[in-house]
Write a structure and sequence with these properties.
Its cofactor is [2Fe-2S] cluster. This protein has 64 residues and is mostly helical. It has helices spanning 11-19, 25-32, 42-63, and strands at residues 2-4, 9-10.
Length: 64
């Protein structure tokens, strides 16, 4: 699903970028330009970021 219409960024691309090391909205903004034009995508992007970081942390806990 498209999250950022202005720059054509999908939820899958955001997740890929997080899995590649992005951990903040600033990282996602610099890498994908999300939230840099109209800003309507920032809430959805933040939600995806938080969900992915929690999922990564949970996997790390299970491994440790």
């Amino acid at each position: 699903m498209y999250i950022c219409i202005c720059h054509g960024v999908t939820d899958k691309k955001i997740i890929q970028t997080i899995n590649a090391g992005a951990t903040t909205m600033r990282d996602l903004s610099q890498e994908l330009a999300v939230g840099t034009q109209c800003g309507k995508c920032t809430n959805c992007t933040k939600k995806i970021l938080n969900e992915q970081l929690i999922a990564i942390a949970n996997v790390s806990e299970q491994v440790a």
